[in-house]
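Q: I have two molecules that I believe assemble together. Could you output structure tokens for the complex as a whole instead of separate predictions?
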Amino acid sequence: MAQPPSGGADLSVDALYRDHQSWLITWLWRRLGSRDEAQDVAQDTFMKILQRPVSLEEIREPRSWLATIAGRLVVDQARRRRLEQVYQESLQLLPEATVPGPEEHWLILEALHAIDAMLAGLKPRVRTAFLLSRLEGLSYQKIAERMDMSVSSIEKYMAIAIRHCYLTQQDAG
Amino acid sequence: MAGARLPEQVLDEAISWRVVLLSGEVSADQQQQWQAWLARSALHLKAWRALENLDGPFSRLQTEDRRELAMQTLDGTERKDKVDRQRRRLIQGLLVAGMAGPALLGWRQFNGSFGLPADLATRVGQRQRTTLADGSLLWLNTDSAVDIDAGSQALFLRRGEIYLDVAREQGVATLSTGEWLLGGAGSAMLVHQRPGYLYLRVMKGQVSAQGPAGSTRFEAGTEWALAGASVSPVDEPFFDSAGWLDGALVAQGMPLPRFVAELGRYRTGWLHCDRRLSEQRVSGVFQLDDAEGVLTSLARSLPVRVRYITPLWVELTPA
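A: Yes, here they are, computed for all two components at once.
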């Protein structure tokens, strides 16, 4: 967790909350179609702001700024749900003996979500090449054979993927 | 991820080295050059660490079983994305070509479940009551969808469960499920599209039906499973399938897995019941609007532990 905001900033977050919280809930409500969910995401949005020291004076359009953060959270949540759904489907395909225990599911899902969020927006082929390397541990030679491409293309893909991951992590900060 | 963004050139170099080292075939020469690059500047080392940290989540998935599960899941989300994109493009294409009306209408008649919104639909956990133009009463249970032809009051059940109380005087409302056409003035029926069959319970009057088994009538107080041309009575004395009309799940000695499956219809996410619990029975009247509360009360009255793996995903295991 980042350090709590200093006195002045604290007041501003307070003001932000007071002035825009109900607007944000309405904005989210319209998008999500559920009041409960809208309240949850609005709450998360302010949590996120508290955790990340920003100079609030610099924010000229507080509502569009809030909407950006909240919008990102909504997308993130949708990705997480879809991931969980596919994970459930994948579990059905596993032989029973190898199905993880209840405690382990959460750890695996967290790791998968981190990877999925990091790779969001990559072209499918780049994503596949990167996963074959980092997850399956294949050499570029093997990946090239499997994807029917040249080794130099795989090298290019890897560079693209690594840069992409680095930048998404930076943005997510 | 703390820290300012790295200078572009350092990032480029670090990425190039990372690509070399992950190739699976690194020569001793390359190793040495890489070490020399690392040693040249503190910033190089910092950049290298930042890239190495990206591998964190992968390290937790390194056993063979987990790798396979991870690959399937991550690959699956990708495929889902692709299908979604194609569907969007298809609809856009139809709209551009001005074909949307007739083409989509054809589709709707074909399977009734294309990406268009239904005329009436409920989300998970929602129930809705409507009066039709002929005075008939229609209820939609959780996660259900119905199309209505305004002229003829013909309903089409896309998914889920409905209760239809056809008006006695001028009731003309009928319900089609694709296979069956159900109706009858003064009758009331509960119809639920369950996996593998259509559940029909006649609450009052007489329901006349046309379907793969020909024309037939079902009397009040009977429950049926319709699957293709097969029509068989349903015997579930442990469960009142009409309880939801009062917002309740009514169970009497209901097998726990069946109870959990039923409850799961009213909450978003996944609810699983360990097979070791299949002998447990549940009795009581439970509020459908508080599915989480029902889970808590189960844990109090049965030897059951409720584990939240994620907020959406719940497993019931032996306590």
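A: One point stands out. The radius of gyration of chain B is 29 Å.
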